[in-house]
Structure formats: structure tokens, C-alpha cells
Amino acid sequence: MPLAVLFVNTRRDPDFAVTGRVKDRLGVLGCVCRVYEDEPVIFEKADFAVTLGGDGTILKCAGIAARYDVPVLGINLGRLGFMAELDIDELDLLELAAAGKYQLDTRMMLDVSIINDGAARYTDCALNDAVVSGAQRVVDLAVSANGEPLTRFMGDGVIVSTPTGSTAYACSAGGAIIEPHIENIAVTPICPHNLHIRQLILSGGSAVQITPLGTSGYGAFLTVDGRGGVPLETGEHVEITRSERVCKLIRVKKRNFYKIISEKLGGGSL
Questions:
Q1: What does the alpha-carbon distance between residue 75 and residue 58 come to, in Å, rounded to a whole number?
Q2: What distance in Å separates the CA atoms of residue 84 and residue 81, rounded to the nearest whole number?
Q3: Could you tell me if 126 and 109 are in contact, meaning their C-beta atoms sit under 8 angstroms apart?
Q4: Could you give phi then psi for residue 170, rounded to 5 degrees?
Q5: Mind listing the pLDDT tens digit of every residue in the chain (270 residues)?
Q6: Which entry of 24, 38, 47, 55 is annotated as an active-site residue?
Q7: Any long-range contacts for 172-180 (C-beta under 8 Å, 24+ apart)?
Q8: Active-site residue flag, 38
Q9: Is the pTM of this model over 0.70?
């Protein structure tokens, strides 16, 4: 029997009412369901995961699911639900997921590390982006790729994103929307204090380095896919490269990227 891990945002489903409906439906379809409770080992034998929440819930699940090569089906209980496949009124389509009748939408991810004295003291994996920013203050940042300087600027920070993340924070910061299967890395300054600083699109194989220079006198923080803020200490920098891991999103509906853009982001005005 297929094993489905239910990854639930309890703020969106506090009484587990929707979770119960999903669990019951998948049970009728011959699946065994387990609710994720901060024990990643549950993914070891899982056939697929189902997230119940918004895009943030998918991001949290993706980092774990990718570690075990488990595909993810998103059910939107949030506002935008850009990455989610199903809305709450489409639970009948769970039948296709349970039967394995779906397409896999494979997305590149990024390995993110804080380097201190040549060694990584913090690592994470991003589906959307890694952000280096100040604590409500401007920061002085140097950006390089493959060991070559790209730019230096003062501003609120910088976003290093995948094509998946191009429609998230990077888009709000004025960056371009990139088709999800074009394997590029986008470097998007946040409110730079220089009119000539613009977004940079790099090849997917690039190694990006972000170095806070400290001349502004304020500390910098690293945020990966919106998860917390890790303070950077003096002399540290952030290294970002394409990950060997990928996120596999389950698709059971016939929608292309352009239709999703139109539905979710008002793409008709592009």
C-alpha cells in the first residue's frame, strides 16, 4: 500500500478538519497516511507527501522530501498557493496521486552555506531563495561568482534565487520572472543605493559568494526559504551553489507555467 506523509500547517488547519478529509479519502484509495511530526525519518519509506497549507508549507516540506527523493503534492489552504497543485474543492483529484497517475515537475535547488575560516559552520537547502540582509538597516555587500567579483553595493540586502523563487521575493524586488525549468541562478539586489545596480542572471552551475563588508556598521543575516535569520559573524561569507538535490512536485492537472502566472499573479498585464 502506498505511504503518504501529510505535512500540515496547523495555523491553516488548526483542528485538522481538512487533514482528516484528506486522510480519509486517501485511505479509501488504498493509501496509508502518516502525519509529519518533526521526524524526517518518516520520509524514508514514503511514496509521496501531501502538504496542507500555503507555499511556505511546501518550502518547509521540500527541503526534507528532497533529501529522501519523495515527490510533493501541494493542497492550498493559504492565499496565493502559487506552487500548490490542488485547491480545497479539488480533493477528488487525490485519486490520481494515489494511483501514481501524475507528472513530476522537477525543480532545481540551492545549497547554502555560511563559511567561517574556510569551513561551513551552517548549511541549508533552498527551493526558492537565500537572502542576505541587514537588521532593518542597510548593509554593504560584495557579490562574486566563481571567484570573480560581480558587484558591490549598499542596500537592504540581496536575494539569490532559483527560477522557482523568481516569482517570490525576487519578483517583488523587481526581478524578472524565469521559467522554472531554465536552470539559472538570479542575483537580485534589494533596494540598492545605486541606480546602476540591476539583477544578474547566472548559469545554474555558478558558485555565488556574498560577503558583508561591515563598513555600514550593522550586522547581516542569512534567511533560507524564509526560515529564520542566522546572523553572520565578522569575517564570514555565504556560498551558494546548485544542489544535487531536486524538488519533485506532483502535477495532476493540465496547467502550464503561463496559465499559473495569469491565474496567480495577474499575468494578463505582462
A1: 9
A2: 5
A3: yes
A4: -60, -40
A5: 999 999 999 999 999 999 999 999 999 999 999 999 999 999 999 999 999 999 999 999 999 999 999 999 999 998 777 899 999 999 999 999 999 999 999 999 999 999 999 999 999 999 999 999 987 789 999 999 999 999 999 999 999 999 999 999 999 999 999 999 999 999 999 999 988 899 999 999 999 999 999 765 468 999 999 988 899 998 999 999 999 999 999 999 987 787 788 777 765 444
A6: 55
A7: 174/199, 175/199, 176/201, 177/261, 177/265, 177/270, 179/257, 180/105, 180/107, 180/257
A8: no
A9: yes
Q: What grid cell was written down for 30? A: 488504498
User: Closest Cα to residue 88, out of 98, 74, 105?
Assistant: 74
**Three cell numbers, residue 207:** 558558485
Residue 158 C-alpha cell reads as 540581496
User: How far apart are the C-alpha atoms of 234 and 224, rounded to whole Å?
Assistant: 20
